[in-house]
Design a protein that fits this description.
Blueprint: E1 8-11, E2 20-23, E3 25-30, E4 36-41, H1 48-52, H2 57-68, E5 71-75, E6 88-89, E7 94-96, H3 107-121
Antiparallel strand pairs: 1-2, 3-4, 4-5, 5-7, 6-7
Length: 123
Amino acid sequence: MTIDLSATYTAPLIPGEPPRTFSTQVRERTTRDGERMITVRGLIPLLADRIDAITDQGDRTHALNALHGAVIVISDRYDAEWDDAPEAREGGRLRTTYRGGAAGITVHDVLVLAAALRTQLTA
């Protein structure tokens, strides 16, 4: 499965306002101590199928707002501080700022996306 990182999604964040077009940005960097980090912002287009499956307009708007600022971080380093964090997997190698709360989109869903992105981006 290839994830289309150039996909966009258009919708209003606030009902009655003009729609906005959301896109995904991927940045890779190496920290001073040698940790390789990939940051993925703009998760809305990557979760479009889940967003579109939300039938209630209020719930869909809530999901858009909850995901709007969410980030995925893919790291090549284990960090014990992330071991028990619900928003991380594999000792922080996969983590997100998304805290859940949107109908039909769980933190687990975002971390599954993070794992698929890691596979695609590090291949």
